[in-house]
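Slide 14.
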Amino acid sequence: MSLTYTLVVNGPAYGTQAARSAYLFAEALIAEQHKLEAVFFYQDGVNNASALLVPANDEFDITQAWLNLAEQHDVKLETCVAAALRRGIISDDESKLHGLDNVNLAKGFSQVGLGSLSMRLLTADRVVQF
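Slide 15: predicted structure.
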């Protein structure tokens, strides 16, 4: 039986295993023919969406991995806009809204409110938090 999943990532891109564990779990879900509808990045997890992360050549690029997964499997990558703004992750829309000169949200990620997560909690068969 195939289930629909939403993942919630609270851990930063680097410094803990939370984001990498979430990514590996996402790959496993897809390999088992489950549907991963979205990954919601919250709290320090919004750092996964920074276009300014540059890991060393021999390190895993978690941001690019999320983008590849999303593109290949039609997964939405959503960041909590409030958590992102507090941590300096800025989309084009938010940059204009707040009169800022810079944007650093990686293309392929979107910024949404907690209402989006609430709807996913209601519609997914399973929600797993990392």
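Speaker note: The beta strands are 4-9, 35-41, 76-80, 109-112, 126-129.
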